[in-house]
Amino acid sequence: xxxxxxxxxxxxxxxxxxxxxxxxxxxxxxxxxxxxxxxxxxxxxxxxxxxxxxxxxxxxxxxxxxxxxxxxxxxxxxxxxxxxxxxxxxxxxxxxxxxxxxxxxxxxxxxxxxxxxxxxxxxxxxxxxxxxxxxxxxxxxxxxxxxxxxxxxxxxxxxxxxxxxxxxxxxxxxxxxxxxxxxxxxxxxxxxxxxxxxxxxxxxxxxxxxxxxxxxxxxxxxxxxxxxxxxxxxxxxxxxxxxxxxxxxxxxxxxxxxxxxxxxxxxxxxxxxxxxxxxxxxxxxxxxxxxxxxxxxxxxxxxxxxxxxxxxxxxxxxxxxxxxxxxxxxxxxxxxxxxxxxxxxxxxxxxxxxxxxxxxxxxxxxxxxxxxxxxxxxxxxxxxxxxxxxxxxxxxxxxxxxxxxxxxxxxxxxxxxxxxxxxxxxxxxxxxxxxxxxxxxxxxxxxxxxxxxxxxxxxxxxxxxxxxxxxxxxxxxxxxxxxxxxxxxxxxxxxxxxxxxxxxxxxxxxxxxxxxxxxxxxxxxxxxxxxxxxxxxxxxxxxxxxxxxxxxxxxxxxxxxxxxxxxxxxxxxxxxxxxxxxxxxxxxxxxxxxxxxxxxxxxxxxxxxxxxxxxxxxxxxxxxxxxxxxxxxxxxxxxxxxxxxxxxxxxxxxxxxxxxxxxxxxxxxxxxxxxxxxxxxxxxxxxxxxxxxxxxxxxxxx
Length: 702
What we know:
Blueprint: E1 9-11, E2 19-23, E3 26-32, E4 38-45, E5 54-60, H1 62-65, E6 66-67, E7 70-76, E8 82-89, E9 111-112, E10 129-130, E11 153-156, H2 158-162, H3 175-180, H4 182-188, E12 192-195, H5 242-255, E13 259-264, H6 281-289, H7 314-329, E14 335-338, H8 357-364, E15 372-375, E16 395-398, H9 400-409, H10 417-424, H11 428-431, E17 441-443, H12 453-456, H13 492-511, E18 515-519, H14 548-551, H15 553-568, E19 592-595, E20 610-615, E21 628-633, E22 640-642, E23 654-661, E24 670-676, E25 685-687, E26 691-699
Parallel strand pairs: 11-12, 11-18, 12-13, 13-14, 14-15, 15-16, 16-17, 17-18
Antiparallel strand pairs: 1-7, 2-3, 3-7, 4-5, 4-8, 6-7, 8-10, 9-10, 19-20, 20-21, 21-26, 22-25, 23-24, 23-26
Helix pairs in contact: 9-10, 13-15
């Protein structure tokens, strides 16, 4: 390597930190590649704004530029106007897959060459790693640290949230577009947005075609990461300035009191199986980064996407930890939802570890200590760990049991009353044995994966033909019911029932112990036309139609008011489970009381479809709140007659007031001022099928 052939002086450099570091003496490059025999740094240098970049290839010498497993070199320059990548050479034995003709992405690269959404990607073909410096002025931005008890999560897709023409924005489908929608988010009342993947991926890596038009579909969701650090530039209004645009979005959301949680994918990468495109990890050190069968060296596919990251290898653990720290320190992210997080608990051969070091490392990392960490506690190979993912209270879990049980109950299934009660009370069956509380449960009814809430009450069968897989993709076990008519349009009576069921399920979600999560658009009745796996639909199937905010304004009002009710009353936001009455304490009072139709009567039988719940507002050692009585009818065709319990005699000047009736027309479906109920004649409440009614103890008004 003759130094005179380059526009910079070249030095040995430093092995740490990995990636690129801009120092006063130059730019340092460091790459881990244990099994490589040779590494070449490939640089495209933009010496001037005129003309094409000039390419240089710098061969790193084993005796000079290697320390242990790390290859390193320094360029004596302060100019960062370069893009770079690596060619990595080695012997393709024992599972290694070196392809030196490929120009690979640095796993620690902070940005890739910007490109607009849909533009052909250069990954593996040209140097595309960029050097960026973080010069953004965060001003006084600090982590919001909103307690989990006060958190309401809103899951959204950056592009899909505002791309529809009805959004009428200056920058639809972008980070800037989210900024424009902050007033809407504040009015809705959510406290955190959970962004579907925003690390760089190739939306063009799909192989399926629209069966009607023949158009190649996109990888819209982005669960196929190319990098764990580099931000998706195609989501920016100005891709050349995408990092600062993202930071402006985070800063603006924080100023509005809204946290930012990232849906992050560490369980696999977009390189796929051996038929996929080598762009980074496979060509650098395949046996380190991925789980391989010890004998065949085929990929172990616990992700369902062709490969599985070897998350508990020390090198990969460090990579994951460093990327999480980067998102917190440099991008001011407030939390993470880990996709298929059970893979984080598998060893190199795929065995489930009793005390996974990766999961412990995330929970105990001092930089991440104030962040929210949420696990999707299962993987694609059938490992299901809801309730047992970790005993550390730092970890929250997507509670798939909550989703399934509420769906089943509100579809009229039998044998669900005991499960409904358990979910409302915070899922103690899942979390109490490990000394965790109800806030470990992230409660949801829908997410990006599956039916929207409107489709859940409108379709018995998935409608995924547009995905190009002949309707074979997507879950067949949706626990949905179409309310008596498949799809849209539907008769008026069916539509009314659908809206009632939506309101009822959302009421249960908001009034249950745990942390609620809403999917963007459910509050305005968004439909995907029955598609329950819209990962490849970059069109109006996935884009949120903002005209629904007006068309379904009554539903939107109901959602907003339900969130307000939850926010106002700590009785719905407990940090611990309900405790039993101590009979030795004379003034002891139950914190929760169950009944069927009349006070003191319970029915936990298989065929029972009704439940009454009395939440006591006065609790020992806790702030006093109002009492609430919740009546729930899960019958498909039968009304239930509930008699509410009398208010305790020591509660002065309070009467039951109706605050929610999901069977009533707006605005009577929810009234937070409460409508006084006359109970002088031992009145019972007629609760129609799939209805939730909520009474609140309020002072009588003269």
